[in-house]
Design a protein that fits this description.
With 182 residues, the chain is mostly helical. 48% of the residues lie in helices and 7% in strands.
């Protein structure tokens, strides 16, 4: 309705990262109700194993590519600043098997850039949601972004685009050889 304030978008690091990766996956996870069917549970889905797997995957990347999730880490920095009212500019990833730590020190400028990026994504989510609610084809409002991530996307069974893009990964595919042997 004209003149009415827009409903505020409740942003979380997970929502922003999901939409930035694939708008279709965001729609499946946060817009479509009932939630579309997901694939079977992943073998690595215990907290410890999941953290282990995520860190190992990140650590295996070339140094220049170890930025995935940077927006998420950034939002945690901002969360600490705003909710705990503590100065915070450093993010760290601890690689438990080797005991090594990768750290990044944010500057006010880098923080401001990430905030702007997060706000842009939130704006895009709001716009896509409003267009779909107004009758636009949801597939057009939330376009699929097929890629390697489709092999392990939880919503692959509901997504013809992802199924056509790459083969499915086995549900135990993220376990290390040690995990599989035990
Ligand atoms: S399978 Fe791929 S294209 Fe489909 S929702 Fe998941 S990430 Fe997006």
């Amino acid at each position: 309705m004209p003149g009415m304030p827009r409903r505020l978008f409740s942003a979380t690091p997970s929502k922003l990262a999901t939409f930035a990766d694939c708008a279709r996956r965001y729609r499946y996870a946060d817009v479509d109700r009932p939630t579309p069917p997901k694939g079977p549970a992943w073998a690595h889905n215990t907290v410890g194993a999941a953290v282990h797997a995520a860190l190992r995957s990140w650590w295996d990347l070339p140094v220049a590519k170890r930025t995935t999730g940077g927006a998420r880490q950034l939002l945690y920095v901002l969360g600490v600043r705003r909710t705990l009212r503590r100065p915070c500019s450093r993010v760290e990833l601890h690689h438990l098997p080797s005991g090594t730590v990768a750290a990044f020190e944010h500057t006010e400028r880098s923080l401001a850039n990430h905030v702007r990026r997060a706000e842009d994504i939130a704006e895009d989510i709001t716009a896509a949601t409003e267009r779909a609610a107004a009758g636009e084809d949801p597939d057009a409002a939330f376009p699929a972004v097929p890629g390697q991530q489709c092999s392990w996307c939880d919503f692959r069974p509901s997504c013809p685009t992802g199924q056509a893009a790459v083969p499915a990964r086995e549900t135990w595919g993220f376990l290390s050889e040690d995990d599989v042997a035990t």
